[in-house]
Amino acid sequence: MSVWKIKPVFLAICMSAILTVTGVWSGGATVLGAEPGTAQTITPTENTDGLLKNPAMGWMLYVDNTADAFEDPDKYWADFGVAADHASILLIRAPWSQFEPEEGRYAWLYDDKYKRLIQGAKDRGIKLALEVFVNSQDAYRQATPDYVRAAGAEGKWLPFGRGIKSNIRSVTTTAGSYSGSISDILDNSEATSWTSALNVSFPQYITFNFGDDAIIGNTISIVSEYGSGQGITKVDVEYLNGSDWVTAAANVPIVWGTNSDTEEVRNVSFPAVESTAIRLKITDANKKYGNFGISEVYLSDNSPTEQYWTPYEDDPVFREKFDVFLDAFAAEYDDPAITDFVDVYGLGWWGEMHNLNLKMETEQQAANWLTDKFTSRFSRVLLNSVEGGYLIDLADQTAINGITAGIRRASYASPQYLPQEAKDKIVSVWKKGVPVFAENNFQVYDTWRTTWSPFYPNVGTMLRQAVIEAIYTHSNVLDLRRPDDATTWITRYPELVHYFNKYGGYRFVLNSVKLPAEIDSGATFAINQSWKNTSVGLFPNKRPNWNHKYKVAYALLDKTNGTKVSHSIVDDVEPGDWLRGQDYAYSSEISFPGASAGEYDLGVAIVDTTLGDKPAIQLAIMNAKSVEGWYSIGEILVR
């Protein structure tokens, strides 16, 4: 089997992408000009290639779609193997009911598997990102804890099978195929679709076979995009009784709401039947484009105990209970020592703000409510608005206005869900100072091949496109995702992993520093320095909840053991301004208070001022680091 290898043209494409997306704002720093005079000039050697693990950037691992229980932590971390060495962030995306299966019984306190998963991340120096969703659409379990329903919250039952397949052995059709395969409507992905042959007459049939084992069914859920353009509009439901097809429901009308790429679901209900086969007899359809199409089909059984309840997301009881949960959630995770970012996320399908389940409020009102609930509780870690559904503009503006820190967008590498105009829009938001957090549209690459194969000849081409788009949109992160996907990245396409390590996120280089070789004890002196960012992302230092907490600092280090003796913050240097393509030069005055006469090593660091000026950011320079994290870049004499 041939292994896809990166070609020189890929490097040229990526470098071209980088060169075309450099920033246009400098945030007040002086771009290099006249060279200031000084007694000594120190020029650290740039680290052009090494992996840097820093806050709010890098490769991400996922805990996602984990059925009724969290992953077995020992197997999970073992399956990742060396892939975990490349990761900076572990994203945990889970339903509220998995974080709190019973009222007040939180996973971080009572779930041993969950606690060991988190400890595994801590042991590997990996921080958390968190997403909680409440809507049960396509969920692997009821997303909102049942105690919320029992407390009186109103909602609705979703048909069993919307995301949970019955035992369908095969599917066939009489309608032919223009795009996709009829099997795509059963591949557990609404990102793929099938369309009939052009200009078919009616009736046409789609038949679901269950083998020798009869099933009980009472609902067929049909998912389509562009429904008013190519959706089915009238069907009969028939079931096999011996050798005869018997009608279970006749002339059922189906009305679609949009002619866009928004997936809509329509349920066709009928009296419960038991059979080894069920078929749709399609008697009419919208054929604006000459044919009709379906993204996915689900069958439900007649057992209400297997249905998933989902709340109205503006229900007062639901919101009261969710408030209490968020209080506990924020108390645990509004801690930058363990959490990198939290997504303002959770309403609508898949938690991504599609098709919110509301009774009274508009989607914008509900999204604003959710944002307020997160921003009123999280004050220390970054919060990201999620671009989803009809609320993309609202998410972008919320971040631009400084209510949230960044924007989070799925769909990378999908020509269908992230077209060029969407990528350009993300770039325009980034140019307003908003960091970008990307997610590949595809996962389970080797098993769910039909999700990406309509667009790409092989996995490597798809992964390459994800990297190119992440670079183009200045993303700080990208996902290795699940253990099997991470193995694909690391073992088959390591050059792509390396490329994003080098150019994704931010990568800070101290070009030079000019200062006296000798200073008087306690005296103020001039220091001139130049910095650059060689990667395409944005350091979120000026964003809400970080609030300029990271500062450039210099230190006197004991020459025998590297311990810091004295240090000084350079207040007029802002790393959050640094964009690829510019050098940022500053002239400042600092002093080293309390330092006695003697020879010292000169240290530099970007420190976290909320942690007592502790060095916090890995720099892309080759100089040795002290135990405390200061880069030793030269010597200085105190008289």
Structure commentary:
The chain contains 15 helices and 31 strands. With 639 residues, it is an alpha/beta fold. It folds into four domains: 187 residues, Alpha-Beta Barrel (TIM Barrel); 137 residues, Galactose-binding domain-like (Jelly Rolls); 100 residues, no CATH class; 131 residues, Sandwich (Immunoglobulin-like), CATH 2.60.40.10. The chain has an eight-stranded parallel sheet. Strands 24, 26, 27, 29, 30 and 31 form a six-stranded mixed sheet that branches. Strand 11 and strand 12 form a beta hairpin.
Compact overview of the structure:
By secondary structure, the protein is α/β, with parallel strands linked by helices. It contains 15 helices and 31 strands. The protein has an 8-stranded parallel β-sheet.
Any descriptors?
639 residues; alpha/beta; TIM Barrel; Jelly Rolls; 8-stranded parallel beta sheet; 6-stranded mixed beta sheet; 15 helices; 22% helix; elongated; disordered N terminus
Can you tell me the CATH superfamily of the largest domain? Answer: Glycosidases
User: What name is given to the CATH topology of the largest domain?
Assistant: TIM Barrel
**Mean pLDDT, as a whole number?**
90
Please give the count of helices.
Answer: 15
Number of strands: 31
